[in-house]
Specification:
The complex is a heterodimer of chains A (264) and B (461).
Chain A (H helix, E strand, L loop, with lengths): L5 E12 L5 E11 L3 E5 L6 H9 L4 E10 L2 E2 L5 H7 L1 E4 L6 E5 H15 L7 H14 L4 H5 L1 E2 L5 H15 L3 E5 L7 H13 L6 E6 L12 E6 L2 E6 L2 H9 L2 H14 L1
Parallel strand pairs in A: 3-10, 3-11, 6-9, 9-10
Antiparallel strand pairs in A: 1-2, 1-4, 4-5, 7-8, 11-12
Helix pairs in contact in A: 4-6, 6-7
Chain B lengths: L9 H23 L5 H17 L15 H6 L13 H10 L13 E5 L2 E2 L14 E4 H4 L5 H6 L10 H8 L4 E6 L9 E16 L2 E6 L4 E16 L2 E6 L4 E9 L4 E11 L4 E8 L4 E10 L5 E10 L4 E10 L5 E10 L4 E10 L7 E10 L5 E10 L5 E9 L3 H8 L5 H17 L5 H22 L1
Parallel strand pairs in B: 1-5, 4-6, 5-7, 6-8, 7-9, 7-10, 8-10, 9-11, 10-12, 11-13, 12-14, 13-15, 14-16, 15-17, 16-18, 17-19
Antiparallel strand pairs in B: 1-2, 3-4
Classes of the chains: A alpha/beta (264), B alpha/beta (461).
Chain lengths: 264, 461
Amino acid sequence: MNVTTTILEIRGLKARIAEDGTEILKGVDLTVNAGEVHAIMGPNGSGKSTLAHVLSGREGYEVTDGTVLYKGKDLLSMPPEMRAREGVFLSFQYPVEIPGVANTYFLRMALNAVRKHRGLPEVDAMDFLSLVEEKAALVEMEDALLSRNVNEGFSGGEKKRNEIFQMAVLDPTLAILDETDSGLDIDALRVVASGVNSLRSPERAMLLITHYQRLLNYITPDVIHVLSGGRIVRSGDKSLALLLEEKGYGWLEEEAAVGAGTAS
Amino acid sequence: MSASAPATTLASALSEGTVSALERARAFGAREAATSPLFVQNLRRAGAEAFAKLGLPRPSDEEWRYTSVAALSRQLPAMADAGGAPAGRTASARSALASLGPIGVAGRSHHQLVFVNGRLDTELSRFDGLPAGVRFDALSRLFAAPPDLLERRLGLLRGHLTHPFVAMNAAFLLDGAFVHVPDGVVLAEPLLVVHVADGSAGPVASHPRVVLSLGENAQATVVEAYCGTGEAFVNPVTEIVLGAHAHLDHTTLQEESVEAYHVGTTEAHLGPGAQLFSHVLSVGGRLVRNELTVRLHGDGAGATLDGLFLARGEQHVDNHTLVDHARPHCGSQQYYKGILDGSARGAFDGKVIVRPAGAFTDAHQKNRNLLLSDTARIDAKPQLEIYNNDVKCTHGSATGRLDADALFYLRSRALSESQARSVLTLAFASEIVDRVPVAPLKAHLTDRVLGWLAGNASEAR
């Protein structure tokens, strides 16, 4: 018997940019269950990154309506670090360079913050080392990158590998991957995708946010959603991605406009 | 001027302070004359006379534009002279030294001179076992039979004739350190000179003098550490002379109490091909002025000047540098950083002069400041004066807050906001801390920064 556990439940989410009041998300509905990988595709400006930012608690956005439940808890009322401790992980589109902070030093702090929240003792130095070795292998991270400062001087591909490496160490329940394929050549894409695939598990949910179908050649999602004009206008299986690849986003945007016209 | 005196104008307070200081300097000189060689007596007299003429710096003095010594001049008359140390000073010095952590007295494993309120503490000091020809001793011990070199070096840089605080230091010269490393000798082990300002039995003024001299091709690492408790005025002067191709790594660590006034003046003269790596690190003090002048007087000499200060509450820290490129093919790199919280004030006033003879100069000056509160303030004044066209000079100063993207990145990885702020602030400091060559000192500094950050967090709560 299969028991479905809902990890993420977004209902009628509306959000705007705090600074100028521009509404970006205009009523997003989405349910992601444990074990599922969902892809959110959409043209530039459709609100994909805003959705990732709002879910991770980035400043600069105002939620004006709707709810987001994460494992039944109100996600939006949690500060970013609490979301992370509860098991939400955001892989950044543009990972931040942090001079002066060594990668593994930072990651150990992060892991210990998560463990403390879960009532676990701090990770032992030797255990941490073997965990790092094991997870670094998943994305073929070189040792040199581990001891260097966080993302400082990393290539685009190295930064994205580092994100997936961090994800592997922190073992989240919900992973949100924001444009993980951007800036990657085909080899790096293959490595990153295989890292992500190895982290698929029945307990974990993933949300892939991507402009291009390319990533989905390597990571096969269970469901694909098309975000357009701040709403999900179409959902389907992986064949939808191929359709988008062939026809672009234009036809969906026109359809959405017609649909909206009919409804009013 | 007594504490109960009616409010006076700043000008009259300054001149009264000067007069009283002069009288005291003369009395001090008379008291110490019997135990001092003639050249020391002369230096004291010259300093006292110069100070009487110069007086304390006024706010209108461009070099003192960002730092007022008015509060210091009001406190000075009430301070005991150096040498009149409280009883049981070794005990209090021990606890102050303990605050220096691994570089303090623990085990006395290295060579160190410890001065308490300006006077040598023989019990805490260790001189023996250095290579032949190396001098590492207290001035007061050398005054009975001073080496020729000390007579030639002491006051050589002549700041006591032109600089009010150096003049005051000369006038009240009592004790200090003399370091000489002869030609070709390389000292692997760092030499430590500790000055403890113990104001626990009432405010004390001390005027330590440090004379560092390296012969040709000599190498040494010297750490000057300033620590202590209570109210004090510490007015050290360090004179450095480096022979041809000598290497000196010199650290000034200043972590006196937040009631202390610290006005330190260091001047270095570099011979041909000589290299100086200076680290000026300030954590304590109510008013701190670090003045560093480096004169590149030999062809191909080079200096790297690092600085870092942490200030919070009402602390005021002023870093003042002057690098004088007087000869061809000299290089200098300055990197000064400040971290300010609360209502702290900071200043960086750095000047590079390239003289007409300073062809092929390669001089760079960088100043970065981090403001952790809305009420902290820093004044930065980088200056280049160039009188030769064939040079490469850059300078830049930037002041900012913690990067919001980096803060969010760390928080999105489960670090609390205060943890994230600490990590980023430590990272800002570590660029300077990591270049300190003495490992225990580096570890101590990291602890200091972390402790400072924890203190800030608890103050904010």
